[in-house]
């Protein structure tokens, strides 16, 4: 399967949001990645459901909604109402993760689970078969533009081994510090989906960067 590219809206120009979303619509991007932060689970606040509902009207790419919040199970209905394709929750934020994943599926969305950099992939042994996506944070969540955490490459290999050993189709998504060099190494290690924020939106030609990420081998 050719890798999927999911530009992160967190790095877009919020004074020209429609322009940037239209660029994504016309690009080779596969998903639009949306980081919702609450200032509690992570030390930052991003945007909420009014933005997502507005995006529903103009975004033509599947919306990949990443909840960096406490008690994400309380907002399953609200996320589903935005037309989200995928709802991704943090392992560390869910006391009853299996129940949350089931609720996401019942709401008609694909389900993802995210691991923070300090969390080992072994934690997923009993849940990986129940989700469509596992996302590994390759920076500490909360801010864009951070330096890539090198151990993520080895974690990706470990996760790929687990998924293959179980005979699953679960996708591996990586979020943080993705560029042409780290992206290539992550794909070689078994990643399927690359999230890129600052690297895309700070470029002179973001659509060209997306195209090059899509073409990495």
UniProtKB/TrEMBL annotation:
One GO MF term: D-ribulose-phosphate 3-epimerase activity
Binding site for substrate: 8, 66, 142-145, 175-177, 197-198
Protein name listed in UniProt: Ribulose-phosphate 3-epimerase
Lineage, broadest ranks: Bacteria, Pseudomonadati, Bacteroidota, Bacteroidia, Bacteroidales
InterPro entries referenced in this protein's UniProt entry, alphabetically: Aldolase_TIM, Ribul_P_3_epim, Ribul_P_3_epim-like, RibuloseP-bd_barrel
Family: Belongs to the ribulose-phosphate 3-epimerase family.
Catalytic reactions of this protein: D-ribulose 5-phosphate = D-xylulose 5-phosphate
Enzyme Commission code: 5.1.3.1
Cofactor(s) recorded in Swiss-Prot or TrEMBL: Mn(2+); a divalent metal cation; Co(2+); Zn(2+)
Residues annotated as catalytic: 35 (proton acceptor), 175 (proton donor)
Pfam families: Ribul_P_3_epim (PF00834)
Binding-site list for a divalent metal cation: 33, 35, 66, 175
CDD domains in alphabetical order: RPE
Free-text remark on how the cofactor is bound: Binds 1 divalent metal cation per subunit.
Pathway, per record: Carbohydrate degradation
Protein species of origin: Parabacteroides absconsus
Alphabetical keyword list: Carbohydrate metabolism, Isomerase, Metal-binding
Task of the protein: Catalyzes the reversible epimerization of D-ribulose 5-phosphate to D-xylulose 5-phosphate.
Signal peptide: none
């Amino acid at each position: 399967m050719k890798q999927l590219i999911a530009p992160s809206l967190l790095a877009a120009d919020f004074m020209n949001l429609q322009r940037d979303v239209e660029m994504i619509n016309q690009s080779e991007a596969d998903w639009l990645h949306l980081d919702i932060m609450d200032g509690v689970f992570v030390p930052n606040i991003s945007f909420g459901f009014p933005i997502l509902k507005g995006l529903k009207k103009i975004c033509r790419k599947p919306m990949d909604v990443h909840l960096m919040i406490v008690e994400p199970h309380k907002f399953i209905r609200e996320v589903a109402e935005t037309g989200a394709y995928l709802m991704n929750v943090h392992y560390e934020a869910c006391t009853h993760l299996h129940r949350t994943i089931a609720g996401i599926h019942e709401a008609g969305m694909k389900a993802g689970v995210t691991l923070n950099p300090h969390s080992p992939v072994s934690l997923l042994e009993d849940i990986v078969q129940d989700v469509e996506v596992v996302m590994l944070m390759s920076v500490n969540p909360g801010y864009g533009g951070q330096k890539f955490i090198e151990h993520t490459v080895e974690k990706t290999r470990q996760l790929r081994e687990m998924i293959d050993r179980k005979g699953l189709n679960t996708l591996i998504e990586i979020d943080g510090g993705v560029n042409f060099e780290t992206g290539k190494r992550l794909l070689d290690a078994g990643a399927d989906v690359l999230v890129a924020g600052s690297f895309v939106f700070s470029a002179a030609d973001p659509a060209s960067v997306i195209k090059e990420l899509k073409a990495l081998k």
